[in-house]
Every structure is written in structure tokens, then in C-alpha cells.
Specification:
Number of domains: 1
Number of helices: 6
Helix content: over 70%
Number of strands: 0
Order of helices and strands: HHHHHH
Radius of gyration: 16 Å
Structural class: mainly alpha
Strand content: under 5%
Distance between the termini: 23 Å
Shape: flat
Amino acid sequence: MTGYISLILMVIFTTGGNILIKLGAPGLVFGKSLKALIRSGFNKHFVLGCISVLFAAVAYIFALTRVPLNIAYSFTGFNYIFVFLAGWKILKEDVKPVQLGGIVLILTGIVVWNI
């Protein structure tokens, strides 16, 4: 597996993990007891989200062994873009024009950095 494929997997796992954690977070029980919080943390979305974020970290670490750090780190900017898009399309979150402008700036920065 090349470093660039690992970076793509890192973005996919990060995006999926964030969406799953967001879906599982309402099931967490805060304020009662530590035992209740831990027990509530075993809902499927939350657990799968945490596993996905762990896989993202492993993919990123692997990529760092194959790709220069400045290139690998610039790819983390795609996390902002894809998490934003997934929140909009999957979670039906509101989108403001200024956020779309921010996404365009992030994408432009990634492209310019990697030319």
C-alpha cells in the first residue's frame, strides 16, 4: 500500500469516525456516574466511530513512513472538507455560505501546497 492510499484511507476513516461518533454521542449518559457513562459508551455507533478514528491514526502513521511530513500533513485538510460534506449530506446539518467559502479556501490551500 502506498503512502498516498494510506492518506486517502486516513481521510475516509476520520470522516466515517466523526459521523459515527456524532450519531452515538446522544446515547452517552453524563452526570450520573462513571459506571453509567462507561456503559453508555458501548453503543454501536460510538464504538464503531472510535475504532474508525483509531484506524485513521494507524493509516496516517503508515503514510508518514512513505510520504514527506509536509505533504502528509496537508492531506489532513481534506478531513475538514469531507467531515463538513458528510455532516451536510448525512446528518442534514445547515450550511452557511461563509462555510462554503472556507471549504473553497481549504481546498485551494491543499492544491497550492502540493503543486
